Amino acid sequence: MHRTAAPKMSSKSGAFVFLFPSCAEHTMATPLEDVGKQVWRGALLLADYILSQRDLFEGRTVLELGAGTGLASIVAATMAQTVYCTDVGADLLAMCQRNIALNSHLAAAGGTVKVKELDWLKDELCTDPEVPFSWSEEDISDLYAHTTVLLAAEVFYDDDLTDALFKTLSRLAHRFRNACTAILSVEKRLNFTLRHLDVTCEAYDHFRASLEALERLAGGPLRFMVEPVEASFPQRLLYERIQQLELWKIVAEPAT
Ligand SMILES: C[S@@+](CC[C@H](N)C(=O)[O-])C[C@H]1O[C@@H](n2cnc3c(N)ncnc32)[C@H](O)[C@@H]1O
Fold first, then answer.
1. How big is the CA angle at 236 (ends 30 and 79), to the nearest 5 degrees?
2. pLDDT digits over 203-212, tens only?
3. Per-domain boundaries in the chain
4. How far apart are the C-alpha atoms of 147 and 137, rounded to whole Å?
5. Whole-number Å distance between alpha carbons of 13 and 46
6. For the domain 8-254, what is the CATH code?
7. Is the pTM value of this prediction over 0.85?
8. 92 touches 65 (CB < 8 A)
9. 119 lines ligand 1 (CB under 6 A)
């Protein structure tokens, strides 16, 4: 995966300036188990998209999956009412919480970001008060009653995790009271594999197959509509917007 250059963001009006790494914590290279501790390029593309979609975010309840450093959640919080910023691991979530505190001045008036553990490999949200970043019953009720937007950046690098994430996305969409829109970013990474003796993009292919499977699901209370999002929205953060960087939109709404 490609790590990012130092991202910078500023509002057009000059009302705020946001220098991400200088006022937020992240690391510049990470072993696989710590991949959430750096900002990935797909998070920057997603952040740019969020900034271009005021109607989708203003006053809304948003859930981010696999948030890592929390960049996309912080940007969503400049417009949203409540952002549930989720990932796994107390250490990573604590880092994310510090980043959110450092950038709390950017949040919309009355808006909040809540850092919570949400593990795609578990069917239920943890409500044990002894566990750091667990959920209160009120938060769970609020999440299910009000969420209309779901975000995930750069979380499609391992097929088993991709399966778990799609299962989580579908389960949550079925529990939400409202229709919801999920925005996913992915980078199509090409690797040479000895197995194929060729260059392939297996993780990306598995992601695309999962999108197609979701769209084909039939007979349930929801239908899922999938479409690519053209990256023609303005670029306000510093990163290379390469062709392999993609955004996908999934709309989950009642089948009838
Ligand atoms: C490549 S990082 C992307 C982080 C961030 N979204 C970004 O783009 O900068 C993948 C993220 O998925 C998270 N993740 C991996 N397995 C997970 C699981 N089972 N449940 C929830 N999050 C998980 C990791 O902790 C990490 O933060």
1. 90
2. 999 999 999 9
3. 8-254
4. 15
5. 21
6. 3.40.50.150
7. yes
8. no
9. yes
